[in-house]
UniProtKB/TrEMBL annotation:
Keywords of the record: Cell membrane, Copper, Electron transport, Heme, Iron, Membrane, Metal-binding, Respiratory chain, Transmembrane, Transmembrane helix, Transport
Gene3D superfamilies linked: 1.10.287.70, Cytochrome c oxidase-like, subunit I domain
Membrane-spanning segments: 20-42, 63-83, 103-128, 140-163, 190-214, 226-256, 288-306, 318-337, 349-369, 381-405, 417-441, 456-475, 495-519, 596-616
Source lineage: Bacteria, Bacillati, Bacillota, Bacilli, Bacillales
Protein name in UniProt: Cbb3-type cytochrome c oxidase subunit I
Entry-linked Pfam families: COX1
Listed SUPFAM superfamilies: Cytochrome c oxidase subunit I-like
InterPro entries recorded: Cyt_c_oxase-like_su1_dom, Cyt_c_oxase-like_su1_sf, Cyt_C_Oxase_1, Cyt_c_Oxase_su1_BS
Subcellular location: Cell membrane
Topological type in the membrane: Multi-pass membrane protein
Superkingdom classification of source: Bacteria
Organism, as annotated: Alicyclobacillus mali
Record-annotated Cytochrome oxidase subunit I profile domain positions: 41-559
Length: 656
């Protein structure tokens, strides 16, 4: 018995892997015990089940996405600190080569797919229906399923660190490195199954919000009056629907190679690994724009609000968003200029890669012209927006260098590339998501986040960012390649690597300050009693904070582009504020556990696929089918909020 347990522990729990695994196991156990104890002591199990796990309310789903994104930012950030600790000094052995490979794989995957994606989906859910005057998304039930598919996909990926082993072939997962002969064990299976599970939810989210924006806008909200954040979400959803199926197919084929003995990517058996690389980057580069487009929308809302001006060049902003969503499909081959595609192919993709900078530059100038002679307020959302501009300009300029094929031959797979894409993805996406979080936080929770601690975090993060990544441009030009887990002392890289590591720790400290800021503000943050703490311009600020479940007591009539601004300052309040006699019963979806159970069933099926325990897989898929059958037979899936209840609530808020 003892021998069998030790064999199981060493093989699956990886107890022979060293202190990092032991510490992780202990922290996981302590965290679970603390959560269970807290919920039990405060008698919150029923509240958690009724209000969150079974919810179909888009606002609560958005908040759950936000919590997951912040947790994944922590996990991905810890991975980054482990890598930078390893590289702080030459000849370091804090991590061995295998552990380093696993950590840079999980870092990239988590930050792109399990941090950036849920962060943008959080803002999709929290903002879009409110901005367009809708009571919910087009498919609330599907929206809940999308979240739980993401949640259990992320959970499946993260448990690989302590059960079975993490993937170790890089976040791009190229064959033949990921074929079974070179990469045995469950690590790569975790990667393939978890991302596909989450990716199904992502495709469903893209469909959901595309239909929501197309079909559920308030009366009078023509395309010329749609807020820019909603336009950015529309552009992002177009890219999602065209790009994510390619990733789904690529990962499914690679999984079949590993568990079913097919040879789609095995050269010796007629396969072609370049087919995977093309499919991956047909998704991979549009993915960059999937996450940056909503950030552009956030910046547009923030700049207009805190400059007290309508956005400069609205139509050109919309055109540039849509143009980026098209050009994003014409650039994927610049990721493998060095793979022998030929001069003609490289030239086409080089020109396309440079062209994508044009609509991006249009937006930068529009934001600057919006701020020109505006009454700028340096709130936290505006600070993150202002910090984004020099970051993204620098990242864009280095991107043009990488887009030139002859130069890319020198920069390819060097730390110059590492610095470039972190400058655009952190300086563009993460800054945008943090700006959006600060901006819409009062709308979500009814209080502002503390400005003083927020500014401390802002400056720590920004100083740390430049200290971390500027040296990496120089390291790349000096010949340091990415994915090196150690380096000799005579290369001249020592000081720059140490400086870069110090910058990474400053960013880690900034994240801890943000966590403190949130915890402090829960009790001491300034309460939003008006629903409009920023003097906003769009419809979400016409609602109380937090927003009631039904969103709008009466759907507003839109007569201007910045409708709430027009209502406040141009005498059009009657189009926005409800009249008691116009309030009717409102039908909203019932809360249901089925989306959670569908996600759990997919998790069970996926776990079985990872370890090739096919009985478990069959049980999971059978449970999915049962849930879908019960849904198909369901007849009563709505509840009614009575008009009198709504009138009473609105009267309490002083709105009728």
């Amino acid at each position: 018995m003892t021998s069998g347990f030790l064999q199981f522990a060493n093989h699956y729990l990886m107890w022979n892997e060293g202190p990092l695994i032991w510490i992780s196991d202990a922290l996981i156990v302590l965290t679970v015990v603390a959560i269970v104890a807290t919920l039990t002591y405060t008698k919150r199990w029923g509240w958690l089940w009724r209000e969150w796990i079974t919810t179909t309310d888009h606002k609560r789903i958005g908040i759950m996405y936000l919590v997951c994104a912040l947790l994944m930012l922590f996990r991905g950030g810890v991975d980054a600190l482990l890598m930078r600790t390893q590289l702080a000094f030459p000849g370091e052995h804090f991590l061995n080569a295998e552990h380093y490979d696993q950590i840079f794989t999980t870092h990239g995957t988590i930050m792109i797919l399990f941090m950036a994606m849920p962060f943008i989906f959080a803002l999709f859910n929290i903002v879009v229906p409110l901005q367009i005057g809708a009571r919910d998304v087009a498919f609330p039930y599907l929206n809940a399923i999308s979240f739980w598919l993401f949640f259990f996909g992320a959970l499946l990926f993260n448990i690989s660190f302590v059960f079975g082993g993490s993937p170790d072939a890089g976040w791009v997962s190229y064959p033949p490195l990921t074929e079974l002969g070179y990469d045995p064990g469950p690590g790569e299976n975790y990667y393939l199954v978890a991302i596909n599970l989450s990716g199904i939810g992502t495709i469903a989210t893209g469909i959901n919000f595309l239909v929501t924006i197309l079909r559920m806008r308030a009366p009078g909200m023509t395309w010329n009056r749609v807020p820019l954040f909603t336009w950015s979400v529309l552009a992002s959803c177009i890219v999602i629907l065209a790009a994510f199926p390619a990733l789904t197919v690529a990962l499914a084929l690679l999984l079949l190679d590993r568990i079913a003995g097919t040879h789609f990517f095995t050269i010796l058996h007629g396969g072609n690994p370049m087919m995977f690389i093309n499919l991956f980057w047909v998704w991979g580069h549009p993915e960059v724009y999937i996450v940056i487009l909503p950030a552009f929308g956030v910046y547009s809302e923030v700049v207009a609000t805190f400059s007290r001006k309508a956005i400069f060049g609205y139509k050109s902003m919309v055109a540039s968003l849509l143009l980026i969503s098209v050009i994003s499909y014409l650039v994927w081959a610049h990721h493998f200029f060095t793979m022998g595609a030929g001069a003609d192919v490289n030239t086409f993709f080089a020109i396309a890669s440079m062209c994508v900078g044009i609509p991006t530059g249009v937006k930068i100038f529009n934001w600057l012209f919006t701020m020109y002679r505006g009454r700028i307020r340096l709130t936290l959302p505006m600070l993150w927006t202002l910090a984004f501009i020099p970051n993204f300009v620098t990242g864009g300029a280095t991107g043009i260098l990488l887009a030139a094929a002859p130069e890319d031959y020198q920069y390819h797979n060097s730390y110059f590339l590492i610095a470039h894409f972190h400058q655009t993805l952190i300086g563009g996406v993460v800054y945008g998501m943090l700006a959006g979080m600060y901006y819409w936080w009062p709308k979500m929770f009814g209080f502002k986040l503390d400005e003083k601690s927020g500014k401390i975090a802002f400056w720590l993060w920004n100083i740390g960012f430049y200290v971390c990544f500027m040296p990496q441009y120089a390291l790349g030009l000096m010949g340091m390649q990415r994915r090196m887990y150690t380096y000799p002392a005579n290369m001249g890289w020592n000081t720059l690597n140490l400086v870069s590591t110090i910058g990474a720790y400053l960013m880690g400290l900034a994240f801890l300050v943000i966590v403190w800021q949130i915890l402090y503000s829960i009790r001491h943050g300034e309460r939003d009693v008006t629903g409009d703490p920023w003097d906003g311009r769009t419809l979400e600020w016409s609602l109380p904070s937090p927003v009631p479940e039904y969103n709008f007591a009466v759907i507003p009539t839109v007569t201007a582009r910045d409708m709430w601004w027009a209502a406040k300052y141009e005498g059009q309040m009657e189009h926005v504020r409800p009249r008691a006699e116009d309030i009717r019963d409102i039908h909203v979806p019932k809360h249901t556990a089925r989306p959670f159970l569908i996600g759990l069933s997919f998790f069970i099926a996926g776990f079985g696929l990872v370890f090739e325990w096919y009985v478990l897989t069959a049980v999971g898929f059978a449970s999915v089918l049962c849930c879908l059958l019960l849904r198909a037979l369901e007849e009563d899936d709505e509840m009614v909020i009575a008009a009198d209840t709504i009138r009473q609530h609105e009267a309490t808020l002083g709105r009728v």
